[in-house]
Amino acid sequence: MTENLFAAMRNWVLEDITAMLPELPVEVLAKIEVTPTRDAAHGDMATNAAMVVAKPAGKNPREIASALSEALARRTGIAKAEPAGPGFVNIMLDAAFLLRQIPVILSASEAYGQGTDKGQKINVEYVSANPTGPLHVGHCRGAVVGDALANLIAKAGYGVTKEYYINDAGAQVIALGRVVYFRYLQALGLPEKADAYAASVAGGMQYGGAYLEPVGAAFAAEHDTAFVDKPESDWLDTARQFGVSKMLDLIREDLAALRVYFDVFSSEDALVQAGGVTRGLAILESAGLIYQGTLEPPKGKIPEDWEPREQKLFRSTEFGDDVDRPVQKSDGSNTYFANDIAYHADKMARGFTQMIDVWGADHGGYVKRMQAAVKALAGNTQASLDVVLCQIVRVMKDGAPVRMSKRAGTFVELRDLIDEVGPDAVRFIMLMRKSDAQMEFDLNAAVAQTRDNPVFYVQYAHARARSVLRAAGEISGLADADLTSLTAPEELALIRKLIAWPRIVESAAEAREPHRIAFFLYELAGDFHALWNAGRDDAALRFLQADRPTETKARVALVSATAIVIRSGLAVLGVQPVEEMR
RNA sequence: GGACCCGUAGCUCAGCUGGAUAGAGCGUUGCCCUCCGAAGGCAAAGGUCGCGCGUUCGAAUCGCGCCGGGUCCGCCA
């Protein structure tokens, strides 16, 4: 646990402002913030307190700003505070106060930036790809974003469970079971029977990929000819479960290649079998939110086979959705939505007050109804669902989009992408974009050894830092080093960046935006490289000064703190720090 | 017809939840380095923040309406 200096400063501001104006309502105080300044000339931090407070207090913002400045300037740790612009208060930290953060970082080590325990459990669900084949490139962004987001939220002090929802209950896994059977017959050396079976299946065999051949062979090894010439009812469940289990193995391998791991794999089928859907719907039913009704046809282009049908509907419009949503099909079986309601009810029953689902953009139309369902299930409790949508990724090579057709055989599977650029580049670059914006993944940049490649740039900064530390050898008492020699603008800029880390963790977690971590690291690397380059022009700024042990020690402490923060950030992104570039 | 996401420099994108003179990388141009802590450094040019109203001390950010791109819209999950 480490202190967020900006939060601490905000508390000081709140104390001083309420001492001056005791009557301020809490909603007003809540709007007060303390942020880093964009321009170093404006000091280290700035607060909008005077402007926020001016109107409710009926005073001039500049007057409040100067009074607040005087109060703040009296505090230990603040060298200067002055009103600026329309009513900002710019705060310059005492140099000693700023430098004191370096030993704080050193002693916290990679736990630096770890938020205080919020005492709250958050469930983060992502990937949840159908267990019918290997992961493809489209799954990748969600996997990386979900994983980094879960790490980030844990870093911010929440108890996080990473969860994968296995859709093993619908038509698609029945189709999988049939393909397993088809491959099974082939593996037994009965191609005629296999073809005859395939021809008998309405709609034909799905999942034509070769990845199911070994599954059929394994199925044959286990069951020999026991299922030959037997009706589906004899073997379909067995084949389906066998297939799902093998596909999950495959998916787990793909995820491991991307260094994505889950705490919980949750089975839809198991939930259904255990009566979860009945339970979940009963909650809504008892709240009077389920009824029999007929939906209006969609406006505009009406599907050809449209006909009015009476269905069991969930009153999602009461919770902000556009139309009520069916929980049962016309034949009385449950819709996927019903199962998803049950699944979220189950998560809540497991004690999660906050849930985050990471979905692909094609599920965008599904967000409102799911959030409506969670609100309905929550009743008077605080439980809530956030949905992070990941937009489409276009993979680019040499300035042109890489075709992702199966026929072309290029970059269909996630493994192809990982093999091409490595898990670190995949993860970092996927996280260099806000998830709700479409992105281009440039293969050329991903493997470049230049600044174009943000992974390289950040890892290079870490490698450089480690190289300095290796060259410095063992220096004892770094935490007690005299740091007063750290006065160069590049050094101070770097320190300012380092102390922003806890705040970045907090705000990025709050916003569910892991990409902010990637950008922070890129900037931090930039500040470190800038300091390094300054040493190239001016030898006096180099880290290791043979005849000046005090300055060397101070700089080594700074370099060590930098390496720590980079590692801490990379750990959130799930990218490995490197000791040296090869 | 409707819902959701996006629109910021030539290109790819940030912009910290409404703040000060809108930033970065690439590309372009001009210098410097390339006897090492290699796989560059410094600087310049480049903007109607899609358009128009509105909200307020203050808008790229919030609201409404258009325009453009994307995703999707009852027995697929």
Name of the CATH architecture of the domain at 450-573 = Orthogonal Bundle
Largest sheet: 5 strands, parallel
CATH superfamily of the domain at 450-573: Isoleucyl-tRNA Synthetase, Domain 1
Helix content range: 40-55%
- Give the class from helix and strand content and strand pairing: alpha/beta
Give the amount of beta strand, in percent.
5-15%
| Overall number of strands | 15
What is the overall shape?
Answer: globular
Per CATH, the class of the domain at 450-573 reads Mainly Alpha
The averaged pLDDT comes out at 91
| Spatial strand arrangement across the major sheet | 7-6-5-11-12
Number of helices: 23
Q: What would the CATH topology of the domain at 450-573 be?
A: Isoleucyl-tRNA Synthetase, Domain 1
Question: What do these coordinates show?
Answer:
The chain is of the alpha/beta class. The chain contains 23 helices and 15 strands. Among the domains are: 89 residues, Arginyl tRNA synthetase N-terminal domain (Gyrase A, domain 2, 2-Layer Sandwich); 124 residues, Orthogonal Bundle (Isoleucyl-tRNA Synthetase, Domain 1). A hairpin with a 2-residue loop joins strand 13 and strand 14. The longest helix is centred in the middle third of the chain and has 26 residues. The mean pLDDT is 91. It binds one RNA strand of 77 nucleotides through helix 3, helix 8, strand 10, helix 14 and strand 15.
